[in-house]
């Protein structure tokens, strides 16, 4: 991430639309912290984070004590990132105190020669503070809440289809026979779904039905075993018609992995 930020800073030039050189100010504001941003932050993440720090620094003399701390908590939840946010707030108050405009928007554009142009839109302190105290709770969240998954979803598309298997009432009727002391039903077991990632070469519902007709008992027995290990008590005459009567099956061809950490399978778990 640090290389991205440094590269961006090396090539930023102030837009004619920027007010009071705030694009250049932001470059200097971010610079000392370039290597401290998480690896998964791209340039837009860094700027969004830095804008929140800048605006919070401007608000610190207006909001005091618990009110400011609550706003800081809203703005960043991760402990390490909160430490970085706090340092940037104090840095702004120490080195950029006289620049009291609030940054309300920005735009990053890359030119043909790979030069990155940053445009900042600012609002004067009096107007921003007036608007701030008229913000609803939802408006405050929109302004300061740390959003996740703002990245391009297409970058996180994975080459799998997904099927979601949810037990129907006949499955819970069987459970009630096996465990008469409990009370199971489709209505009160909303967390009973199973998600399976499968090959993405299935292109339509008819192909899925043909595929399931061959594979259904693997899913059937996997679900039964999850509830009861004694196979003698499982329903013995299982067929595809029974499978459809006992389970809802939904299917998706759009599967996205929004996390940075790698996917681990069972053998890779560190128990």
Give your account of this protein's structure:
The structure is a single chain. The protein is elongated, with a radius of gyration of 27 Å. 44% of the residues lie in helices and 14% in strands. Helix 3 packs across helix 5. The strands form 2 sheets. It has a 3-stranded mixed beta sheet. Strands 5-4-6 form a 3-stranded antiparallel beta sheet. The chain folds into 2 domains: 153 residues, no CATH class; 98 residues, no CATH class. With 271 residues, the protein is α+β, with helices and mostly antiparallel strands.
Quick one: biggest sheet?
3 strands, mixed
Oligomerization: single chain
Q: List the secondary-structure elements in sequence, H or E.
A: HEHHHHEEHHEHEHHE
Based on Cα principal axes, name the global outline.
elongated
Residue fraction in strands: 5-15%
Total DSSP E strands: 6
- Taken together, the total number of domains comes to 2
Enumerate the strands of the largest sheet in spatial order, edge to edge or round the barrel: 1-3-2
Catalogue the unreliable spans: 1-19
> What distance separates the N and C termini?
31 Å
Compute the number of helices.
10
Rg (C-alpha, Å): 27 Å
**Roughly how much helix do the residues carry, as a percent range?**
40-55%
Average residue-wise pLDDT:
82
Q: Structural class of the secondary structure composition?
A: alpha+beta
